[in-house]
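Look at one record.

>
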Amino acid sequence: MIKILYKPKIKWLKLLIPLLITLPPSGILLTKTLFKQDIPSSYRYHFTEKISEKIPGTTDTTKLIINEITFYKERNRLQPDSGLNHAALAKAYLKLARATGQNSWYLLAETTAQRSLQLLPFDNNGAIIVLARTAQAQHNFAEALRLSEQVLKSQPGNEDALSIIVTSNLAMGKLDTARKAADLLVQRIPSQASLTLQALVQTAQGQHSVAIDTFKFAIAVEEAGENGTSAWTRVALGRVYYKQGELELARGLYREALRILPKYPLAILHLAELETRRGNYGAAENYYNQIRVYSPGASTTFDHAVLHGKAKIKQLQGDEKSADVLFTEAETLLRQENSSINGSFGHRRELARLLLERGKPKDVTEALSLMQTEVKNRQDAQTLDTLAWALLRNGKHQEAMEYEQRIKVIDPSFDTQAKRISGIDYLGF
């Protein structure tokens, strides 16, 4: 592990490149109640002049991205053989994909980046990074790593490539490698984004108190205008508190993320999950409904999670008929996303978890098959836990126990039973 030998001061950090990863959603008008949160002052976003009920930052962000797409489409019309312009357009498509969660934008980003590399096969790291990010979105982590390593050969300090190295290894369960990359990234640029990545790795290693301190540092060095990163950090920190049972603090952080970025899908999903856990099923369902309303008629990476979450609520309420309808809808979406038609977003684990929760005999058999395939792709704690669960449901108790032991090596604090109860971790990569 790379040792960090600096004690950065905030004034000095303000001069550094601030942003590595942003996950900006689209905007909505806020209610006044959302601005009053039961969280420590140090967790609040203090750049209040950047937040307005009249001018939500996320709406403006989305519009800016669309304007950027329009600009580069026109550039490509005038200069159809420009690889750089195609790379810039691909990057803009990727921004919109991450902002909206809509699968179609990811696919457009991928095809445009491929065209860029056809036109400019050398010194085109921008297009390669777009392909690496889309590979991640499709859960093809090995390909994302390969592409990132390719970029690092010519540009060793590329922050995007390093961040992909962190997140891909994190998803694959290679925590030591992820930790080294995260520490290197923080050493190079101790920004809010890089520190948040470091905290996520620490969390995956079960070092929750250390991770919380790192999250606090990440918030302390945040800068105005980087709303996507600021919201993301608070959701990630909220997840740590949620897992520790500190639900009010988690709720406050999720709501603070929404104050920063209205309509933020991750924050809304986690609020729905939290309210489900508290038994506030009406509130949870309202949160899920918000996600579907924001992208009418468009397929997003969150649709299956919304339907799955609503199915679980109906199940908990004893409405098995409605639950089965919603489970079936979620299953249909997941099967479409797992197919090779129009691109695959690799949600085998999510499909397996759904089948296990529904619990029909043919479902548990298929779930095991899905997880035996998925474990070849990633071996983080949640994936191993889902495989162990599938093994148990299929009567393979000894094999399940072996995977449970592997989980404890990765993260001694990982509560497998709690995972089975709480469902999908939407921060998974």
Summary: The two ends are 23 Å apart (CA to CA). Residues 1-36, 49-59, 417-429 have pLDDT under 50 and may be disordered.
